[in-house]
Amino acid sequence: MKRLNTVLQNDGAPLELILLIRTLLAACKEISFRVGQGALAGVLGSTLSENVQGETQKKLDVISNQILKDILSESGYVKAISSEEEETVVPCNPDGKYLVSYDPLDGSSNTDINSLIGTIFSITHAPQWMDPSDPSAFLQPGTQMVAAGYVLYGPSTMLAMTTGRGTHLYTLDKTHGGFLLAEENISVPEQTKEFAINSSNQRHWEAPMQDYISDLLMGSEGPRGKDFNMRWVGAMVGDIHRILCRGGIFSYPFDKRNPKIPGKLRLLYEANPMSFLIEQAGGAASTGAGRILEVMPTEIHQRVPVIMGSKEEVETCVGYHSK
Ligand code: AHM
Ligand code: MG
After folding, report:
1. Which of 127, 148, 279, 290 is close enough to 273 for a disulfide, judged by CB 3.0 to 4.6 Å?
2. Which residues pair with 180 in a beta bridge?
3. How much distance in Å is there from the Cα of 85 to the middle of ligand 2?
4. Smallest-distance ligand from the CA of 107
């Protein structure tokens, strides 16, 4: 089986980027170990604090964020970090060549039920002029990413990653600590009969998403003429992993409750890296109004509506939005 290093070299990744990715994955291996210890190490449950998004932090949110922050800021490769669990950017090495954005533990409410969780990351070049504590350099569209991926802490620990030459899946071999290639150039089927959405929010969606989901639910008796199945992991990282493996459509759509929060998911460290992975596997990713990767961020914790997965199904869903 091919090792991660070999695949990255074949894909033409520069040495410093490879070293950064390996450093980041060293942190993820430690997170994988901590997650695996669970109740034995007392890492389950919540803290008493909230993050900048107003969400109560799980103990593992805080632990995972600290592990990534420590390892990346000591590495020398990184100029600054933005994280779901940090109010503003974390300055690192002024000479670092890269910016890293991450969600240290996506789906962390699943920690209490021993279900899927993961780390999502994206990497861009750091502009030379940039002051490491200046958040404005993070405000680049997703098209500027040089690498993105997630590590899924499931029955096995898996990595999905792209450097812009296809999306590859790896499995962590815990006997020697290496990520080994499980599937190269994965391809998301263009059509699907499976969707993922938190339908408890239905009354807050706009009309196009209401209409689209109603038509799916009518199945073979409705305009789509086929029956659909529904899956919801409660962790985007788990839902996107399923879609990379067998297709599907995932949405956290526009929500009318608060115009300042047009969706739940964050652009820099959730929507963008997942869109890069999905597009590189032949799928599509849209806000409903345009390609997610072309959204120009205005702040580091910006939220966006998300519709991504099998290409034809995403196009059908976006079609409802342009009616
Ligand atoms: P998190 O990063 O704080 O875990 O929040 C993001 C997660 C996504 O992984 C998931 O799709 C969504 O929140 C589920 O939220 P909800 O259960 O509120 O629908
Ligand atoms: Mg998340």
Report:
1. 148
2. 3, 171
3. 10
4. 1
**Mind listing the pLDDT tens digit for each residue in 60-104?**
999 999 999 999 999 999 999 999 999 999 999 999 999 999 999
Report the alpha-carbon distance of residue 295 to residue 256 in Å, rounded.
Answer: 20
* Helix/strand/coil for 305: coil
Give the number of the ligand closest to the Cα of residue 120. Answer: 2
Number of domains comprising the chain: 2
- Shortest-distance atom of ligand 1 to CA 53: 3
Cα–Cα distance measured from residue 264 to residue 253, given in angstroms and rounded to the nearest whole number: 8
Last-in-domain residue among 163, 183, 203: 183
pLDDT in tens, 284-302: 999 999 999 999 999 999 9
Ligand 1 and 65: CB distance under 6 A: no
- The maximal CA–CA distance of the chain, rounded, in angstroms, is 61
CB half-sphere exposure, 248, CA atoms < 13 A: 20
The answer to whether the CB of 308 is under 6 A from ligand 1 is no
Does the model's pTM come out above 0.70? yes
Answer whether residue 134 is part of any domain. yes
Among 125-129, 160-164, 308-312, the least confident range: 125-129
Query: Does 24 lie in the same domain as 167?
Result: yes
Q: Check if 234 has its Cβ closer than 6 Å to any atom of ligand 1.
A: yes
Residue 188 lies in a domain: no
pLDDT higher than 90, residue 55: no
Cα(235) to ligand 1 centroid in Å equals 5
